Amino acid sequence: MIRGVWVINQGVPIVVRTYAQLERDETLIGGMLEALSSFALEVSKDEIKEVLLKNQKFAFLRKDILIVVNADVSTPFPVLLSILNKIYEIFKKEGSITAEKVDEIINSPVVKIVFLGEGGVGKTTLRLLLTGKKPPTQYLPTIGAPGIEVVDLEGMKISIWDFPGQEKYRKSWPFFLKQTDIVFFVTDSTLDNVLATLKMMEGIRDSLKDKVVFAIANKQDLPTALNPISIEEILKVKTFPSVATDPTYRPYLLKIIENATYIALGYNPKERMSIEDLYLRFTEIETKVGLLEKKVDEILKIIKNLKIVDEKILESR
Q1: Is 219 left (phi over 0), alpha (psi -120 to 50) or beta?
Q2: Partner of 4 for a Cys bridge, out of 48, 59, 70, 117, CB 3.0 to 4.6 A?
Q3: pLDDT in tens, 231-270
Q4: Angle, vertex CA 206, rays to CA 202 and CA 211, nearest 5
């Protein structure tokens, strides 16, 4: 949660915004004011620093101006980094910045993610799965305007869009992609669809130049599905497996979105589990859960045969 923003130009505050009440703690407020005054002199130009004061953090960016963002300790650094950079870019472009512009940055998603792919590959189902909503029971094509959801992921507000896949809507894709940070191409993992996706990617190659691009190999539960490694070799972008109708994939896919967001924001922490390690961990846990469930069933059958407990208790389980 962002608590406040200060923009200071030549020692004079030009924007002061408070989004959450400061704790009435003399030590905290005193420390904050001391930090503001000292960092105005001590923070090197172009340097971004993060300081913890009790249960809050302050992130500083000093270039032509000093920008300070106050947030809860749980707020991820990439969010603060994004806010600092966006405020500075507006100041650099316009020579000033207003409180309204700062409010707009604070209330906007840190990144925009778009799902592209042929009709029926599961783009809408993926979007609903990621936002915790129930997927449709039958295929309903996205027509006209894209579907949009905003999800709060580890303190980062992210907008997720899925575009209609029909040919007649594709001319509008370059326009919508202008303000997009991350693009996921979604396939249904069949060879025909993967090749169609490759052709689609080549058709909008220029619009992808400044984007973070990945692919999702959806419908991995179908017998005709190619594995993600084979699909990756064809598409030449990192590809992740998915079954959008299976809720157990949600934590794994959210972690992929989180990592993609870090990459888009230019943040690459040294100690971060890779996507490959994450998927291996996911499949390992999935296997262990399956084996555990099997063991539980076997034990219940043995108990039932021995008639150690009332059968009604077992049936309730």
Answers
A1: left
A2: 70
A3: 999 999 999 999 999 998 999 999 899 888 888 887 665 4
A4: 100
Cα 47 to Cα 63: distance, rounded to the nearest angstrom: 8
Residues 6+ apart with CB under 8 A from 304: 311, 314
Rounded Cα distance between 41 and 275, Å, is 41
In whole angstroms, what is the distance from residue 19 CA to residue 6 CA?
12
Q: How far apart are CA 138 and CA 210, in angstroms?
A: 35
Neighbours of 132 (CB within 10 A): 11
Three-state SS at 24? coil
Any idea what DSSP says for residue 94? H
Task: Please identify which residue in the block is written with the tokens 């509008």.
Answer: 172
User: Which structure tokens are listed for 56?
Assistant: 């809050």
3-state SS class at 13: strand
pLDDT digits (tens, 9 = 90+) for 196-228: 999 989 988 888 888 999 999 999 999 999 999
Residue type, 60: F
Burial of 158-195, coded b for 16+ CB within 10 Å and e otherwise, reads bbbbbbbbeeebeeebeebbeebbbbbbbbbbbeebbe
